[in-house]
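Q: what does this look like with NAP bound?
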Amino acid sequence: MPYSRNMKNIFVLGGTGFVGSHVCEQLVRAGWQVTVPTRRRVHAQAIQHLPGLTVLELDVHDEAALTRAMAGHAAVINLVAILHGDAAAFAKAHVQLTEKVARACLANSVSHLVHISALGADSSRMRTAPSYYLRSKSAAEAVLVQVAAATPALRVSLLRPSVIFGAGDQFLNVFAKLQAIFPFIPLAGADARFQPVWVCDVAQAVVRVLNLPPGGHGVQARELVGPDVMRLRDLVHMAGALSGAGDGKGRPIFGLPMWAARIQAFFMELPPGAPLMSRDNLDSMRVDNIATAGMPGLAQLGITAAAIEPVARGYLRR
Ligand SMILES: NC(=O)c1ccc[n+]([C@@H]2O[C@H](COP(=O)([O-])OP(=O)(O)OC[C@H]3O[C@@H](n4cnc5c(N)ncnc54)[C@H](OP(=O)(O)O)[C@@H]3O)[C@@H](O)[C@H]2O)c1
């Protein structure tokens, strides 16, 4: 076990991902010693150069190995999630892994667990949320509410972002690429509303909750959203226009009725690999993805959320 317990040692599950790599960068800048477990070392290419960051090849679902690897860390961040899969896959990645992470935190006397959830998840919605994704995210929150209630020494921060944009995202970049190829876009969930948040604001929020003064034990949930509430069709149009598709006007967008969207999603799920849109993603979009009035968010952490257009202009422009 290479680590001696240090208040600045932090263990970041999912640190190799889109959000995780930004979180790791900001943690390193803030002086944390960061350990990132990954299923495959090659996934850590974007972060392995960061000073003070250690990459561990590890099966995070192996609880004994996870517990050993977490020894010596004062805080843990869990960013692991999947967007596609069946009920069993969502249960494994979101709920069972959260249970293992929580037990490993208790075994190692970790004082702060930061769990990245999703807007629309809530422990009370584990049976009623519209999709496997949101039900399993809600069930993971329920696990942590219970653990925190039974363990006053563990502080649990739940962060619930809306859809996240930023250089390298799989969101606006995908819609920009589609409009570079196709003359028009048949769009599922076109009228669903989102409140997109910048990846750097999400990463900053993680660092800020870690720096909160001690004493706030128990669970605290925060919703991370940007200042713009936009329908999916407007976001897709913006991505097309900013990337120069259709001579800078974006491609025509045709909203699909739900029955046609489900057929489209069914066919997208057939080839191997992650589909562009699954039926479960459509189910998630049955409810708007916007902040709940009165919930704490970025502003309470002293962060002014970035507007989407100026940031997206910077990375979508071809
Ligand atoms: N991106 C968004 O728009 C968005 C919106 C709302 C909430 N969130 C939440 O933010 C967090 C990070 O999202 P992201 O977009 O950064 O995700 P991502 O890029 O897909 O990264 C996910 C990470 O989880 C690990 N992982 C994936 N599947 C796994 C599995 N089956 N078992 C174990 N580890 C697995 C991967 O690590 P290795 O491959 O290295 O093992 C990867 O680093 C998630 O909790 C997500 O739900 C994201």
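Residues 61 and 97 are 6 Å apart (CA to CA). The two ends are 47 Å apart (CA to CA).
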